[in-house]
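Predict the structure of histidine kinase.
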Amino acid sequence: MARRGTLRIYLGAAPGVGKTYAMLSEAHRRAERGTDIVVGLVETYDRPRTEALLRGLEAVPRRPAPSQGTGRGEMDTEAVLRRAPAVVCVDELAHTNAPGSRHDKRWRDIDSLLDAGIDVISTVNIQHLESLADVVTAITGVRQRETVPDAVVRRADQIELVDMTPEALRRRMAHGNIYAPDKVDAALSHYFRPGNLTALRELALLWTADRVDAYLQRYRTEQGIRSTWYARERIVVALTGGPEGSTLIRRAARMAAKSSGGEILAVHVSRAARLTAVSPRELASQRTLVEQLGGTFHHVIGDDIPSALLDFARGVNANQIVLGSSRRKTWQHALGPGVGSSVARDSGPDLDVHIVTHDEVARGRGLPSARGARLGRSRTLAGWLIGLAGPPLLTVLLAAPPQPLAGFASDVLLFLSMTVLAALTGGFYPGLVSAALATVLLDYFFTEPLHHWGVGSGHDVITVVLFFAIALAVAWVVDLSAQRTQQAARLRAESETLTVLAGSVLRGEDTLRALLGRARETFGMECAALLERDHDGGRWRCVGSVSAVADNPRPLLRPQDADVDVPVGEHTMLVLSGRVLPAEDRRVLSAFAAHAATILDRQRLLTEAARAHKLAEGNRMRTALLAAVSHDLRTPLAAIKASVSSLRSDDVEWSEEDRAGLLESIEDGADRLDQLVGNLLDMSRLHTGTVRPLIRRTALDEVVLRALGGVAPDVVTLDIPESLPWVAADPGLLERSVANVVENAVKYRPAHTRVLVRGSALGNQVELRVVDRGPGVPDADKGRIFEPFQRHGDIPRGNGVGLGLAVARGFTEAMGGTLDAEDTPGGGMTMVLTLPADTPDAVPGSRPSEQGEQGGEHAPGARGR
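Done. Here is the predicted structure for histidine kinase.
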């Protein structure tokens, strides 16, 4: 099998931090070491220092841009593959290729190079990660046009953060090292504000820290390292289900807040070794509190609570454990050390244990614990000690000279008490041995004739036989009780697990990944997956998988690869790896498997429901179209028919002025029909998803002039500066959108007032504002006016079917823009149409010529050409 190339990514928080510079510096270092390295594509944006670094490096010529393109060309992937270097530098991982390229996205080109065994060095900004697109939009107000799936970046073999403080980046900007001097002020006052840069920097640092943590976890697992490494603060909170849990959680949250990036992991251990008092309501409220504070809740099963806690803490690489002071009463401490003492004793130097006081200290537990659930090693040893040493010691005490201390009946009762004590302490076998040993000693030392093996009296024979039978029965009953209590504890642990599983459904935690993670965690496995196939003998495919190690290099793809497999139906199977589970655990695991299959079916049903909802929306749209046609199309048709009939009538002699008026009425009616039918067809295309905009560089002023062709020139004031940047839009769709918005403003304007159409640039966006002085729209109705078949106020029927603004917003959003309504200062309504600018740096400036170079770094939100 051919070797796959390695991917190294330089990650930055914003344009200009030095990603490309770092990549080219690395290229020079490798070239000096004799590595065969070439430049597949690098964008310099006319930055002198970056251009200087390109000198001395072999560059593969770009593929010429298509005729409708605006850039200097895309990377020639085929040429790079033919050249077959050892390493290639490819800038801007998230870039969208021009139409006609081998792939639509540059990261797919990089995948092709990696598959060919070529190592790749690339760059990307944090705002281009798919999972952070909404977060970046909320921070900067700029919607991201180019994104790359997180999985592509996570698969990188190396990720290096190129960091720079906001102050230093703004100084670079002010010195002209990033953008041209005429664009610096606009950039500094919009996207490159200190707050924006600080937030983006924090996102980059946190995301990189998560990736470093994943690499660390994988390394620790591969090397079998169990000790804690202090990479970051991870605090495990031990919850018993008692009322003190909320106090412990809040204390842990304060500890985590003192260190940036601290994590809280609350864990509840279901103990199979004894029945303990747990309040499901308390545990549920504590789980909610943990999640509200940004932590996670975990539920595990363990026979020994201290060992289970320490194993969990070391498994997640925690460095602190928070426990509550014991709720046991003073006399209960004589029964052995509590959980807190045991954890502190066995934690070692790598775990700090915090014992937190609370209001429930020394108040006791809600229910007494049953001690006989499972006989531990120390208790069994104590039982054997009593069973073997107790009868001889009792014999020495009772037979000591000068004469026995008690009669034969008392001796029998004392030996029986010793046997019962051995059975109660150690179970059946210590009790059995004690009974046998006591019987022999009673026969030899206390039954006539003394010091002879044998029983002389019939009454003594009955006494000895009954003694042995009673001792044996007591030992058997004690052992049976221990078994029954152990079974009860086991069933309780299972029911608690199933309760948590059912509770997750009620809380809406119905994602397949969450369920698989809970199953893996509950049974202490390394990996859990749900496999599915289409038919018997078909190939298994993984529909969901979780692992204790992020980016598990060995996922479960077949039942043969797993240690445990549970079938769900005929063609679905839940599989886990890590260890072989006992048979009794499979019953609970089957519940997890059934629930996983239910979640999978539910997800598919939701998909089908969404598809059905879309069809229903289409049917609703068609019904509304028919309702609209019934009147709004009939009115202009009736006017046209009346005018035509009048012209054709021979009973009336029409003057030239009257004839012109009737013809004008016919023309107006035809125009209205054309507009209505056009809007109806456009709305239908939007709802069926058939609108496919052809995005290209567009001059906004030219499109607006064409859109105003049907509007009287004395009702519109146009204010669009010639220096306005180009926009990335479909000219046809943009013209229809502007025309509908302007027509709506003209319809609602007061008489003798004009509608203002003004264009302006804001960062890497261009805004077109259509301002009227009409009655305006209340805030509650601003969203409704963009819905189909909505007319505001008392506009009579026949003035449109209420589709103009709906079509305008649909076309604008299809082009990647926005259309919103705002109040006009002093009264009226302002429609704001926003589109991405299409300039070299997405910064306002003079409009570049058609023939000039159009390459440039895509600032956040700019659309790739």
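The mean pLDDT is 76.
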